[in-house]
TrEMBL record:
Residues 647-668 are annotated as: Disordered. This is WDTC1 protein. It comes from the Eukaryota. One of its GO terms (biological process) is negative regulation of fatty acid biosynthetic process. SUPFAM superfamilies: TPR-like, WD40 repeat-like. One of its GO terms (cellular component) is Cul4-RING E3 ubiquitin ligase complex. WD repeats lie at residues 40-72, 83-126, 537-566, 567-608. The gene is Wdtc1. Keywords: Repeat, WD repeat. PANTHER family: WD AND TETRATRICOPEPTIDE REPEATS PROTEIN 1 (PTHR15574:SF40), WD REPEAT DOMAIN-CONTAINING FAMILY (PTHR15574). It comes from Odontophorus gujanensis (marbled wood quail). The keyword Repeat applies. Coiled coil: none annotated.
């Protein structure tokens, strides 16, 4: 009995220690002391992929040199190097689960997938079914002999190493839905439920598939005949209902024509699940990093005119009178609507002193035109007081002034949130109309502005209202804008004109049912490479990390979306960031032929020379880079300084406040 008790106690202590270690292995002090520990040298080309084993004592890397190296990262040693048999750049490397770290899988630009036995340094399987570059491999612990690949031929293929066949099977054929030009770029399996597979491809939409439903559907159908290729994909049948869910940043579909005109490509370069499987993180090439909540899903915010509200004297700017009456806002797929029923609105709760100080600091930053600083301070306060309408309204004003990609859509979301908390928030109503106009919802902006004038007649002839009215009417009568303006408030249908990239009716239905993002992370640049990663950092996914075209990698707090650290990780571009499974330890790589390891440095260590102190300056430069034309980007990469690029920092002053109470864009 005593032996059993001691054994059980040791087991509990071990589990407790592991739980403590994993819970606290990434903390804010550690992030702020993160610095370069070592450089692992051994490759002779760009290092395009990194992968930890489950224990975290091995790190595999793949490179343009067609070699894979297995490292002992804790002792900075190269354990094994082998030529993979590929004839082009390696883009993905994965340990096969439950293989004792013996089996390694690689995918490369030669369209091949190779399986290697590391104990004998031999390639034991070679799959050549893809017809274009293989960009990612995915594995799942629940299926130890199975893995998947995503390639630029638009196919997701499934492999089972238990079968004697040297061929794979098509699981998903994106070309059936999006035409022959679609390219699959990345994929990942949910770590908590291995039946769910996320796929990123060309375009702004990210797809989540239920593998089990697809298999059951295919089993109920006759296998289509195919010359020499075994497949369970029936090209006459779509995916079963419920087998696919789409996710998209709500403003991107309407922005797509503009991006296409400027040769700005939108493509998901990396997708990954949070450790608990409830969130999906996407690095959207040509845009920002987005986090999607898979549990509490929300439709993109389009606009439907509010029906009723208070008179202007009762509630304004986040402050509610005690006798205020409201209609409550329902957010759903086609926008927001004020319900007909009347409900009581509680008075606006005063902020506690420490949050009031943060709000005042944010207001001061806003007054100094430090838009990003103001946004971060408002976000910090919003996290602590998520039901304060004034904070959302103020943050919306800062977004509208900064004008980075996606800022007007985030401002629109904040305005809607402010109105849901206080249906007669005067500034939020006006800012909503301006956001709709900036997002090309011109007819809806006019309707919203007319509604605003009716609710707040004393503002109807303010300079801000007049200016917005002129802008809207000019856009409505402008032939150049008519082709891009979204009419009628319904979902946007993007149908390609060419036969090769034609979009099926099933695809359009899935797109129109897409879910919107929860958080957006800004500051990095992702336009040059299509393998750039973004990852959760910490066992509780407390932080988000991403590579960037400026050679840095960026770290944000997940919940506030605030940027907290920028480090120089490469002389050119950081593509890969793979956090250690249980330590505050990060491996990165990019264009340089080295793997860099990062961990918290001792407090006694001298200042880390790789810290980018001016995070705001780096972020602004990356926003300019993303909006530059290809020639300007080439010159920037060559070291030339481009003048005349707009910073997107300063907004107009057409809606400044006056003593008569005109509509203002300043915070409350």
């Amino acid at each position: 009995f005593a032996v059993v008790s001691v054994t059980l106690l040791c087991f509990v202590q071990e589990r407790g220690a592991l739980g403590f270690e994993r819970h606290y292995h990434v903390t804010d002090p550690f992030i702020r002391r993160l610095g370069l520990e070592a450089e692992l040298q051994g490759h002779s080309g760009c290092v395009n992929c990194l992968e930890w084993n489950e224990k975290g004592d091995l790190l595999a890397s793949g490179s343009d040199d067609q070699h894979t190296i297995v490292w002992d990262p804790l002792h900075h040693k190269k354990l094994l190097s082998m030529h993979t048999g590929h004839t082009a750049n390696i883009f993905s490397v994965k340990f096969l689960p439950h293989s004792g770290d013996r089996i390694l899988i690689t995918g490369a630009a030669d369209s091949k997938v190779h399986v290697h036995d590391l104990t004998v340094k031999e390639t034991i399987h070679m799959f050549g079914d893809h017809t274009n570059r293989v960009k990612r491999i995915a594995t799942a612990p629940m299926w130890p002999n199975t893995f998947w690949s995503a390639a630029e031929d638009g196919l997701i293929r499934q492999y089972d190493l238990r079968e004697n066949s040297k061929r794979s099977e098509v699981l998903i054929d994106l070309t059936e839905y999006c035409g022959q030009l679609v390219e699959a770029k990345c994929l990942t399996v949910n770590p908590q439920d291995n039946n769910y597979l996320a796929v990123g491809a060309s375009g702004p939409f990210v797809r989540l598939y239920d593998i089990r439903m697809i298999h059951n559907h295919r089993k109920s159908m006759k296998q289509c005949p195919s010359a020499g290729v075994h497949t369970f994909c029936d090209r006459q049948k779509p995916l079963p209902d419920g087998a696919a869910q789409y996710y998209v940043a709500g403003h991107l579909p309407v922005k797509l024509p503009d991006y296409n005109n400027r040769l700005r490509v939108l493509v998901a370069t990396y997708v990954t699940f949070s450790p608990d499987g409830t969130e999906l993180l996407v690095n959207m090439g040509g845009e920002q990093v987005y986090l999607f909540d898979l549990t509490y899903k929300q439709r993109p915010y389009t606009f439907l005119l509010p029906k009723k509200c208070h008179t202007s004297g009762e509630v304004q700017n986040g402050k509610t009178s005690t006798n205020g009456v409201s209609n409550g806002i329902h957010l759903h797929s086609n926008g927001f609507r004020l319900s007909e029923g009347r409900a009581h609105v509680s008075p606006q709760v005063e902020l506690p002193p420490y949050l009031e100080r943060i709000k005042q600091q944010a207001n001061e930053a806003f007054a100094c035109q430090l838009w990003t600083q103001a946004i971060q301070l408002y976000s910090k306060a919003v996290q602590k007081a998520p039901n304060n309408a004034m904070l959302y309204g103020n943050r919306a004003a800062a977004y509208m002034k900064r004008k980075w990609d996606g800022d007007h859509y985030d401002a629109l979301r904040d305005c809607l949130k402010a109105i849901s908390l206080n249906p007669c928030h005067l500034k939020a109503h006006f800012r909503l109309a301006r956001c709709l106009f900036e997002l090309k919802y011109v007819a809806e902006a006019l309707e919203c502005l007319d509604d605003f004038k009716g609710k707040f007649p004393e503002q109807a002839h303010s300079s801000a209202c007049d200016a917005l009215d002129r802008d809207i009417n000019a856009a409505l009568f402008s032939k150049s804008d008519n082709a891009e303006d979204k009419k009628g408030g319904g979902p946007i249908r993007l149908r390609a004109t060419g036969r090769k990239d034609s979009i099926s009716e099933d695809e359009m239905v899935l797109r129109e049912r897409s879910y919107d993002y929860k958080f957006r992370y800004c500051g990095h640049c992702n336009t040059t490479t299509d393998i750039k990663e973004a990852n959760f950092f910490g066992s509780n996914a407390q932080y988000i990390v991403s590579g960037s075209d400026d050679g840095s990698f960026f770290i944000w707090e997940k919940e506030t979306t605030n940027l907290v650290r920028v480090l120089q990780g490469d002389e050119s571009i950081v593509n890969c960031l793979q956090p250690h499974p249980s330590y505050c330890f990060l491996a990165t790589s990019g264009i340089d032929p080295v793997v860099r390891l990062w961990n918290p440095r001792p407090e006694s260590e001298t200042l880390n020379g790789r810290v980018v102190v001016d995070m705001e300056g780096a972020s602004q430069a990356n926003q300019r880079r993303m909006n530059a034309d290809p020639l300007e980007v080439m010159l920037l990469n060559m070291g030339y300084r481009i003048t005349g690029l707009t910073s997107g920092g300063a907004g107009g002053s057409d809606d400044e406040d006056s003593s008569e109470g005109q509509v203002q864009c300043r915070p409350s």
